[in-house]
């Protein structure tokens, strides 16, 4: 359909999973373009329309003839597309909180990526050290930060709740014994998963259960 958005990304959860949750929550008609092999994406970069775009990257959103790149920009675009600027933060304080939580989430995900790219001969010996030094303390901060809050940035749902939920899903899958320690994140996870649009999406054939990261690099728990 011409009026459908197209969400383009690799055939993994990765950076696009919170965007999938968001577009489902917003009820925007869309379809996915999942690139399953590197050559499917990189082979097209020298061709129109991608060869005319300076900031071309994955994930992207195609809206008619318009292309938007960079995941941070996609949240902003989708919120305005659905006339939901409140999802960016309704007050200056909420907007600052969103930015703070987003930064911590990004740092934690970098730590997870370091984990899954550890050399095979070092993985068993180093995985817990890397997790403790690059992931666990950040998760602890997030758990404390959202204590007493309805949502991640305060009283209102914002786009960062979608990213936090995916981080929670990642932690549950990779390190369930650690996940059990974070009561505030568990509460947030339960509240978010009970949003009707999210619950329906996760029960549907559209939902991508995995992999979280590129196959061949994904070592912990799968």
TrEMBL record:
<comment type="similarity">
    <text>Belongs to the GST superfamily. Mu family.</text>
</comment>
<feature type="domain" description="GST C-terminal">
    <location>
        <begin position="91"/>
        <end position="212"/>
    </location>
</feature>
<comment type="function">
    <text>Conjugation of reduced glutathione to a wide number of exogenous and endogenous hydrophobic electrophiles.</text>
</comment>
<dbReference type="InterPro" id="IPR036282">
    <property type="entry name" value="Glutathione-S-Trfase_C_sf"/>
</dbReference>
<dbReference type="InterPro" id="IPR040079">
    <property type="entry name" value="Glutathione_S-Trfase"/>
</dbReference>
<dbReference type="GO" id="GO:0006749">
    <property type="term" value="P:glutathione metabolic process"/>
</dbReference>
<dbReference type="InterPro" id="IPR004046">
    <property type="entry name" value="GST_C"/>
</dbReference>
<dbReference type="InterPro" id="IPR010987">
    <property type="entry name" value="Glutathione-S-Trfase_C-like"/>
</dbReference>
<protein>
    <recommendedName>
        <fullName>glutathione transferase</fullName>
        <ecNumber>2.5.1.18</ecNumber>
    </recommendedName>
</protein>
<dbReference type="Pfam" id="PF02798">
    <property type="entry name" value="GST_N"/>
</dbReference>
<dbReference type="InterPro" id="IPR050213">
    <property type="entry name" value="GST_superfamily"/>
</dbReference>
<dbReference type="InterPro" id="IPR036249">
    <property type="entry name" value="Thioredoxin-like_sf"/>
</dbReference>
<dbReference type="Pfam" id="PF14497">
    <property type="entry name" value="GST_C_3"/>
</dbReference>
<comment type="similarity">
    <text>Belongs to the GST superfamily. Pi family.</text>
</comment>
<keyword id="KW-0808">Transferase</keyword>
<feature type="domain" description="GST N-terminal">
    <location>
        <begin position="3"/>
        <end position="86"/>
    </location>
</feature>
<dbReference type="InterPro" id="IPR004045">
    <property type="entry name" value="Glutathione_S-Trfase_N"/>
</dbReference>
<comment type="subunit">
    <text>Homodimer.</text>
</comment>
<dbReference type="GO" id="GO:0004364">
    <property type="term" value="F:glutathione transferase activity"/>
</dbReference>
């Amino acid at each position: 359909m011409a009026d459908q958005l197209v969400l383009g990304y690799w055939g993994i959860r990765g950076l696009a999973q919170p965007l999938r949750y968001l577009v489902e929550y917003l009820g925007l008609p869309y379809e996915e373009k999942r690139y399953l092999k590197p050559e499917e994406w990189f082979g097209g970069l020298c061709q129109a329309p991608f060869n005319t775009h300076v900031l071309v990257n994955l994930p992207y959103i195609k809206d008619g003839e318009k292309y938007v790149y960079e995941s941070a920009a996609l949240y902003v675009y989708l919120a305005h597309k659905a006339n939901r600027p409140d999802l960016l933060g309704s007050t200056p304080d909420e907007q600052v909180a969103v930015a703070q939580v987003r930064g911590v989430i990004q740092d934690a995900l970098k730590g997870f990526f370091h984990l899954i790219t550890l050399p095979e001969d070092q993985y068993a010996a180093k995985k817990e050290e890397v997790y403790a030094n690059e992931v666990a303390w950040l998760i602890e901060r997030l758990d404390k930060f959202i204590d007493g809050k309805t949502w991640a940035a305060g009283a209102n749902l914002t786009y960062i709740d979608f990213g936090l939920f995916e981080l929670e899903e990642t932690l549950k899958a990779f390190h369930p014994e650690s996940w059990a320690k974070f009561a505030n994140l568990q509460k947030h996870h339960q509240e978010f998963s009970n949003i009707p649009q999210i619950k329906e999406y996760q029960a549907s054939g559209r939902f991508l259960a995995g992999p979280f990261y590129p196959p061949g690099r994904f070592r912990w728990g799968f």
